[in-house]
Design a protein that fits this description.
Chain A has 168 residues and is an alpha+beta fold. Chain A is 23% helix and 49% strand. Chain A is globular, with a radius of gyration of 18 Å.
Chain lengths: 168, 601
């Protein structure tokens, strides 16, 4: 029984170490020219292309060549009901998870119409998935949108709220 | 296997953060998406008009109708407010243009599209000479300062060090620099000296950023507007091709902007030895290449070095804090300093700026006004180029949310030695009066009393000036009657201005300081950028000589210290703009004294 317990603990420890190493190796937050090269200057959603707020854009690379890109857009051209649900875009060129929820490769809109939730929509504005955000009260200098490293992938922050994006 | 790993790790992370996630929020829910204007809420009452308190003290008396300012009418476009440039004018200045010891008043006026196209007479700005005893004489024609362009801001500075204050008037169109001729007249020398900025100029500031003893000029740019290609107006809403692209507020068609309209960069003019100016914006690193919507600026010492720094308040975009590197360039530290955003990481619709050391810790702090459905924000200067948003901790958060703030200024209205706060408000959308948004077009001003670093709203007695609602914009502070209590002038959109006489009682002792710099020591004569530290007992106060700030406006540059019960000044220390420090004896209080560089110890 004792030996089984030891073996189980060892497996769990190896499992965690392997996982951490994979995450550390896997995600790179892009900056400077690398960032501006991948972020689109505007984004189509529900009948309009709106300019990206480049100061509020972020991207990460998983592994060698898998990218996740996100940015807030200038929604001033949208009607009030669209503005209420849509604030930015999420582009991924491979399958990812958002707080563990699967999201296939594609381009999406997102917003925070429901308190404490991030909702991902298709380009026609149809809800695809909704995940709970975590509030990072300790974050000292929050930004409207940014990414930072997380043991499980990358955190996509909106202010002090974040979700975890992981490569699948 | 890979997904199992990630699920496991993600679950661990979520578990580790679970207690934080369950902590209830301490403040009102902030909207998401970057900007900080709140979600649509239907209110059954307006929270910005008719709020009175029968037990509140009488602090200000409206004396406008006893003065010549009652004849002034601000005029900015049409009442429908179809375009953004019709909604944000204008500033006001209190300054002693003729050196008679009594502060005078300059009121900026707007204009109309017809006037801009030469089809109708342009509204006129006005200069009022203070004759004493609340008598003012309109001397606009004699002085030659009617402007007759679409005016927004005024910043005062003695740019040619001749001892007479000059005025930069920022316009939509071409701005003016009114040089004070010393005989009651002014001459527009903007073209001649190279500061005739075109475009939409707003809240400018004078300051000697390079320490050569000559004032330089910074001018923010707001939105790029082409009168021949105007953005859609609310009356265009039913035209084909406009549709849902149209600009709305809570589903109601309103004037467009600033979001969705192109912004303008900012301009820094360096004054050369021959009295002309050169545009050094790009070289200095303050050109604002992202073209944020600039509204108000101020040169001020943010840290303890001898170099004058610069803050720029932008509408709907991050604020900028430029630290002077001492080599003619600046480093922008808005994000790392905490100034760019509010504490939740949201961009705000910054309008006005109050500069002052509200907690008497020796460092300058900033209060900034914002749009309705968002709070104004107070940044406490922690030192080491760090600021903390303390708005809600000090009592300035919740109360300001329904208001759309403009001019803001620290003012020790009761002379107790602690800087109080006055904020002017008014909405940009006339539709605010016809929808249940919980706000209104004309709004009451807000007065807050500073109780050792915490703020309490001072109520408005029924029938008193503070119970009135105005479409306020500009604000200027100065002791207009020389009684030692600071008075106010408010410039109201499409209305007459308001002159508020301070009648607060009891009121503490006070001291006014007029600083005169030594040009030979590379300090501008009007001492802009200098700091006075005044000690009474255990209290050490700081006042800065600042040009601009407030909202496109200019406070009287006479530094005013409330002394409370103290009957003497224990120490007066001046840190001049050139970096030298002197101590002065103050033999008597309850008066204005002139402090000249080189005459101290």
């Amino acid at each position: 029984m004792k030996q089984s317990l030891k073996l189980f603990s060892l497996i769990v420890a190896l499992f965690f170490v392997a996982g951490s190493a994979a995450a550390q190796d896997g995600a790179t937050i892009l900056a400077g020219a690398e960032l501006t090269r991948v972020v689109p200057s505007s984004f189509y959603f529900q009948g309009l292309s709106a300019p990206t707020q480049m100061r509020n854009a972020a991207a990460a690379r998983f592994g060698k060549d898998r990218y996740v890109i996100s940015g807030l857009v200038d929604t001033s051209g949208y009607s009030a009901d669209v503005r209420a649900k849509y604030v930015g875009f999420l582009i991924t060129d491979s399958a990812i998870t958002l707080n563990g929820e699967s999201l296939p490769a594609g381009a999406y809109g997102f917003g925070f119409a429901t308190e404490g939730k991030m909702t991902v929509m298709d380009l026609g504005g149809k809800d695809l998935l909704s995940v709970a955000v975590t509030n990072d009260k300790a974050l000292r200098r929050p930004r409207p949108l940014m990414m930072s490293a997380d043991p499980g992938g990358v955190r996509l922050y909106n202010g002090k709220d974040y979700v975890v994006i992981a490569a699948k | 296997m890979r997904s199992r790993l990630i699920v496991f790790v993600s679950f661990s992370v979520l578990l580790s953060f679970a207690p934080l996630a369950q902590t209830p929020p301490q403040k009102p829910q902030q909207p998401s998406g970057g900007a900080s204007t709140g979600p649509a809420v239907t209110y059954t009452s307006r929270r910005t008009v008719g709020i009175t308190d029968p037990n509140a003290p009488v602090v200000f008396e409206d004396v406008t109708d006893k003065t010549a300012l009652a004849n002034f009418r601000h005029h900015s476009g049409e009442a429908a407010k179809d375009y953004i440039f019709e909604t944000t004018s204008g500033g006001v200045a209190i300054f002693d243009y003729d050196g008679d010891g009594r502060p005078d008043i300059y009121v900026v006026n707007g204009s109309t599209i017809g006037a801009m196209r030469g089809k109708e007479k342009a509204p006129r700005a006005a200069l009022y000479h203070n004759l004493g005893n609340w008598k003012f004489e309109d001397v606009t024609d004699k002085a030659g300062v009617a402007n007759e362009r679409w005016g927004f801001g005024v910043a005062v500075g003695d740019y040619n060090n001749d001892g007479r204050p000059d005025m930069f008037v920022s316009n939509f169109g071409v701005s003016r620099l009114y040089r004070n001729n010393g005989d009651g007249t002014f001459t527009d020398v903007a073209e001649k000296v190279g500061v005739a900025r075109k475009g939409w100029s707003t809240g400018a500031t004078w300051g000697d950023y390079d320490g050569d003893g000559r004032l330089d000029l910074f001018v923010p740019g707001y939105v790029h507007i082409d009168l021949d290609h105007l953005p859609p107006s609310p009356s265009d809403v039913n035209k084909s091709g406009v549709g849902q692209n149209f600009c709305q507020f809570r589903g109601v068609p309103v004037m467009c902007g600033p979001r969705g309209l192109p912004g303008e960069g900012d301009t820094l003019y360096h004054q050369k030895a021959d009295g002309t100016f050169e545009d050094v914006s790009v070289k200095a690193g303050v050109s604002d290449p992202e073209k944020f919507y600039g509204f108000t600026s101020a040169f001020v010492h943010v840290d303890d070095d001898k170099l004058l720094d610069l803050i720029v308040v932008n509408d709907s975009t991050p604020k900028q804090l430029y630290m002077n590197k001492g080599d003619g360039t600046f480093e922008e530290i808005g994000y790392p300093s905490g100034i760019a955003l509010n504490e939740n990481g949201r961009e705000q619709a910054g309008m006005g700026l109050a500069v002052g050391d509200y907690d008497n810790d020796g460092r300058v702090d900033f209060h900034i006004t914002n749009f309705s459905d968002d709070s104004n924000v107070l940044y406490h200067n922690d030192g080491d180029r760090n600021f903390t948003d303390v708005t809600f901790q000090v009592g300035l958060g919740e109360v300001s949310i329904p208001f759309l703030g403009w001019g803001t200024s620290f003012i020790d209205y009761d002379n107790d030695g602690w800087l109080d706060l006055f904020v002017v408000n008014g909405h940009v959308y006339p539709a605010a009066d016809t929808h249940q948004w919980g706000t209104s077009y004309a709004q009451q001003a807000l007065l807050f009393r500073n109780v050792k670093g915490k703020f309490e709203r001072v109520g408005a007695p029924p029938g008193n000036a503070l119970a009135n609602a105005w479409p306020g914009r500009g604000l200027a502070v100065g002791d207009l009657d020389g009684d030692g209590r600071l008075d106010l002038v408010i410039n109201n959109l499409d209305s007459k201005p308001v002159v508020l006489r301070n009648v607060a009682a009891p009121s503490g002792h006070w001291l006014g300081l007029r600083l005169v710099g030594d040009v030979a020591k590379q300090c501008p004569r009007d001492a802009i950028g200098s700091i006075a530290y005044l000690t009474t007992g255990n209290l050490r106060q700081r006042q800065d000589v600042v040009s601009g700030a407030v909202y496109c406006s200019q406070n009287d540059m006479t530094l005013h210290f409330g002394l409370g019960a103290a009957t003497k000044v224990d120490k007066l220390e001046i840190r001049w703009s050139d970096g030298s420090v002197e101590t002065f004896d103050v033999p008597a209080i309850d008066r204005v004294v002139t402090i000249t560089e080189g005459k101290g110890r």
